[in-house]
Amino acid sequence: MNFMGYARPDGSVGVRNHLLVLPSVVCANDTAMRIALQLNGAVCVTHQHGCAQLPADAAQTRRTLAGFGANPNVAACIVVGLGCETVQARDVARDIEAMSPGKPVACLTIQDGNGTLDTITRGVRIGRGMLAEMSVMRRGEHPLSALTLGLECGGSDAWSGISANPAAGGASDRLIREGGTSILSETQEMIGAEHLLAERAERPDIAERLFFIVRRAEEGALSGGVDIRLANPTPGNRQGGISTLEEKSLGCISKAGQDAPLVEVLDYAERPTRRGLVVMDTPGHDIESITGMAAGGAQVIFFTTGRGTCTGCPIAPVIKICSNTPTFERMRDNMDIDAGPIVTGTKTIAELGGELFAEMLRVADGKSTKSEDLGYASFAVNRIGPTQ
Predict the structure, then answer these.
(1) What is the DSSP string of 310-355?
(2) Phi and psi at residue 79, in whole multiples of 5°?
(3) What is the radius of gyration, based on Cα positions, of the chain?
(4) Closest CA to 241 of 343, 180, 161
């Protein structure tokens, strides 16, 4: 069981070969985007963060940006900063170099240069050199132990926990048996089902950590005078037949499969230190959750949905798994796999799980997903506190 990927100097393996242009602060978004637009094949993310943040938020933003740049799917990175921001471009660049030794990383600061036009010119010149080096990189055969899969669900319906989610869980179990890693996300959508997942924890302290992050998510909303159940399930979830958060949570944790023990609980955008099934403390917000997992090193994302979703990720291919055939047929432009045959009884969960595993390998080998074909790529960093 191997896949064809790009070997990186730090020993990791990418399933894509991106040049990433990464602004460290919202003020550098436009400059970073203009650099990327002149570099054929480069990707750029924009965001509203990097300054006027409390220390915990600034640290999380820095960790997320550095993790994105260090992701194995990124072959080279240009970090662009303004100069006076809280999250300094040079610090993000150094973090990337420390997390992914040997990866080409450049740092540009607008205020330390001669303004935006000079920064864009320098960025394009540097990027062209990076692209030239990347153009001779070739895929090689690598074991599945080098693969990390992110597990996400969004726009769920009553069928999600019956078809798409458990099928994704079956593929996850198989990847872990082959030595790979799966990241289960969305802490708020574990509320009411966390005890079932905790039973699979390898050690008591891991179970306690899981209980802690779930309790913190619920109490954090209550401390603000809001019951999280007023926002979750969403109106679309309810229209799709989900009536309580606990129902949604039971479906969410089924993406973790049946067999694999829980070996680690991570902070948002943190890298796993162990192979196997891990939980990342992310919000239920789909884009923030996917961003966190990609920053944690996930090279491929499973995204299950019943209502339909069109989002993608700038650096990691997102495989859309639809829980029911009518939505799949209606949104063929966006959906990759139809899990509806489980609902009709024409396929078993195990059979669909095997198909998902095979599709994951094809995507890891280079097959494009629907969101990649459409050029859809969303990025959002989870926010902890208010803007200062």
Answers:
(1) ----SSS-EEEEESSHHHHHHTTTT-SEE-HHHHHTSS-HHHHHHH
(2) -100, 130
(3) 20
(4) 161
Structure confidence by residue, pLDDT tens digits, 315-362: 999 999 999 999 999 999 999 999 999 999 999 999 999 999 999 999
pLDDT of residue 250: 82
Among 92, 71, 304, smallest CA distance to 185 is for 304
Last residue within a domain, chosen from 114, 134, 154 = 134
Are 50 and 85 in contact, with CB atoms under 8 Å apart?
A: yes
Token pair, residue 301, equals 């994302």
User: Which tokens in the block code for residue 328?
Assistant: 């799949």
Q: If we measure between CA atoms, which residue out of 339, 333, 287 comes closest to residue 313?
A: 287
Identify the domain containing residue 171 by its residue range: 145-374
Give the sheet arrangement for strand 262-266, strand by strand: 262-266, 277-280, 181-184, 148-153, 300-305, 318-322, 337-338
Find the length of the chain.
388
356 plus 256 within the same structural domain: yes
For residue 380, which amino acid is it?
A
